[in-house]
Amino acid sequence: MLTRTLDIDGPVHFMDFGGSGPTLVLVHGLGGSHHNWMHVGPKLARHARVVAVDLAGFGLTPLAGRSAALPANQVLLDRFIQKVSPSAPVILVGNSMGGAISVLQTARNPGRVSGLVLVAPAQPRAEDSRMERNVLFLFLLYSIPGVGEFFVRRRAARMSPEELAREQLALCCRDLDRFPEELVRAHLEFARERHARMPWSHEAFLQAARSLVGLLLRKSRFRELERSIRVPTLLVQGSDDQMVPVANSRELASVRPDWTYVEYPDVGHTPMMERPELFLETMERWFEGPGRVALDAAT
């Protein structure tokens, strides 16, 4: 594993997990980073070259005058893809917000994506969806100018970086004890580093959160983008996801019955962290089946 940086109107950090052949680009969610993929990246590298990007305002990639809104980070992702794989399309693997950005990228630049893996992707609310009240309350606060800034600053003043990180991790899983110990430790260490060295992180988080809410409220438009996708797609969802209700992915699977849909019982929002071996098994089966076309096209 190597940490690398590209210049895309400012530094863009990514983790290179190695591997050869087709390129997999892993895209984190809101508040996430390349650390989210550290337990599965090296093993995915058995099948392809694997890189995990830090979007603008997240991980080790600063805002540096850029926007953390989803459309801006989709453009950044597109330029990143052109740099890491200039002569062939890539397979995108996006979690949560990263899933929504991956949908935008695939719909807008289909020639640069040969396959898509959506892991609990942020998406419009299903008719029978029931979001956790605490999560709904948080996003309501984030969406209000001034109120969101006050709320984020107040929490940062009252809680240690480690406490904030543990709270965020707990929202992302059914059982935090399932997370590999080294993965939890890496997230806590990065939380301390972010608190000490990255004053732009709160601004980036709010920009992205507000942009995400605005995008997903336009359900018919987002569904048009999802319907337009013509590459092999794997949709993975945990049944006990607090952030993206399982009903959302079930509805999407009914809209796109040609996609491969896999649902994990008793799993939360980040299966690649909570059940990494199960997630890897799912990826391997997909690579041997519908995803083979995507691998071949990206070679």
UniProtKB/TrEMBL annotation:
InterPro entries given for it? AB_hydrolase_1, AB_hydrolase_fold
Note the superkingdom of the native organism: Bacteria
Pfam families in the record: Abhydrolase_1 (PF00561)
Gene Ontology MF terms: hydrolase activity
Membrane-crossing ranges are none
The AB hydrolase-1 domain extends over 22-276
Keywords carried by this UniProt record: Hydrolase
Q: What is this protein called?
A: Hydrolase
Species assigned in the record: Cystobacter fuscus (strain ATCC 25194 / DSM 2262 / NBRC 100088 / M29)
